[in-house]
Design brief:
single chain; 12 helices; five-stranded antiparallel sheet; Alpha-Beta Plaits; transmembrane; three-stranded antiparallel sheet; SH3 type barrels
């Protein structure tokens, strides 16, 4: 018997049979493990452990028996058991078990491989594209697995899949005329991914700002946006006409401040330059700048005041926190310099009725000139702040 075993193992096709048997057994064992997990809430721990050991023993015995039959070595009991198991797997029931097991393993393998792809903590175009393509590729491969498994199951139970696919193609052509919007969504999603127009993690506004937020999900059919208040907007890709991306490559802070017409403009510009350079020189914020501040000067003579403006070229998605910090510092600096920032005023007419006046003691006003510009400030966040954009508009 030993000589026969050595002679059989010298043939390459015998090794291929053994490998196929081991892979099929592993697939069936993994499928059983997945089903046993579903029983965990309903079965005791000791009983579940016993079932797992029994299932492992059955799989090992089956693998050994089928391998002995594949090698064709007449080992008592194992050879007969392998013949019975092989003949049973040749029938439709055995094929169904193998198909379902392989589909489950492929499904879990895709999830495991996808979880290993980590874009990284730094926000850049590579991380955005990697996050986007990971979700799209994962969902596409899962659809392919389901289709292949469905066709294999139909073949296993005796249905001619070729004829069925021909009928489905004719039916799909008829349905396609009624699902033009779905086809348009898929085509638009494909070009969004191909051209890297935007991706997961970008801050965008679609259709001239009607909807805006952080992109949480992107696939071939829809784009999911998370607004500042937590609302999730699901937008079909076919309905997206224009996209405004606020976080691609670099961003800009449009830092503006208004002063009254009675203010000293040169002094106000000096304060604006000082605050801009101080923010640029602060180690806490310096890493967010891509270039030095650009003070443009007087940009508008409005009805309520004179507008002064500076521009900061910064890292994407840091412009909102930088703008908030600039507003805090410029207000303190203007108060210290005695420059008034205009605010709306109204004249109220009381008519001819008598007016009663009551005198009250004034409370002492706080000395705004003693505020410190370098007070503790929040770290730059990466969430979108549409209020700052509305203020700029």
């Amino acid at each position: 018997m030993l000589d026969l075993l050595i002679a059989q193992l010298s043939k390459p096709w015998v090794w291929l049979k053994v490998v196929a048997v081991l892979l099929a057994t592993y697939a069936v064992w993994r499928a059983g493990q997945s089903l046993l997990r579903l029983l965990r809430p309903h079965v005791g721990r000791s009983l579940l452990r016993l079932i797992k050991w029994l299932w492992l023993a059955v799989c090992l015995f089956s693998a050994l028996s089928v391998s002995v039959y594949a090698v064709y070595v007449p080992v008592p009991i194992l050879f007969d058991a392998g013949q019975i198991i092989t003949s049973w797997f040749r029938d439709s029931a055995g094929q169904l078990v193998v198909i379902v097991a392989l589909a489950l393993i492929s499904w879990r393998l895709i999830s495991s491989l996808s979880a290993r792809i980590v874009p990284g903590d730094e926000f850049n175009r590579r991380a955005v594209r990697l996050s986007t393509l990971r979700g799209v590729v994962e969902s596409t491969l899962r659809v392919i697995i389901v289709l292949i498994a469905a066709i294999s199951v139909l073949q296993a139970i005796g249905i001619n899949a070729t004829t069925l696919l021909a009928g489905v193609s004719v039916f799909g052509l008829a349905v396609g005329f009624g699902a033009q919007s779905l086809i348009k969504d898929v085509f638009n999603g494909f070009f969004i991914l191909l051209e890297d127009q935007y991706g997961v993690g970008d801050v965008i506004a679609v259709n001239s700002g009607s909807l805006s937020g952080n992109v949480e999900k992107l696939n071939l059919r829809v784009t999911a946006l998370r607004a500042l208040d937590g609302t999730v907007h699901i937008v079909p890709n076919g309905q997206i006409q224009t996209v405004s991306v606020s976080s691609k490559d670099w961003s800009r802070v449009v830092a503006t401040v208004d002063v009254t017409y009675t203010a000293n403009i040169n002094e106000a510009l000096r304060v604006l330059e000082q605050v801009s350079q101080g923010l640029y020189a602060d180690p806490e914020w310096r890493g967010n700048f891509l270039d030095g501040p650009e003070v443009q000067g007087v940009t508008n003579l409005a009805a309520d005041g004179i507008e002064l403006r500076a521009l900061f070229k910064v890292q994407p998605k840091t412009q909102y926190a930088l703008h908030r910090e600039f507003n805090r510092r410029i207000k303190i600096a203007m108060d210290q310099a005695g420059i008034e920032i205009p605010f709306p005023q109204r004249t109220i007419s009381m008519g001819d009725a008598p007016i009663s006046i009551r005198l009250v003691r004034d409370q002492p006003k706080p000395d705004l000139s003693k505020q410190e510009i370098s007070a503790p400030h929040p770290r730059p966040g990466e969430s979108r702040d549409p209020e700052s954009e509305e203020a700029r508009d």
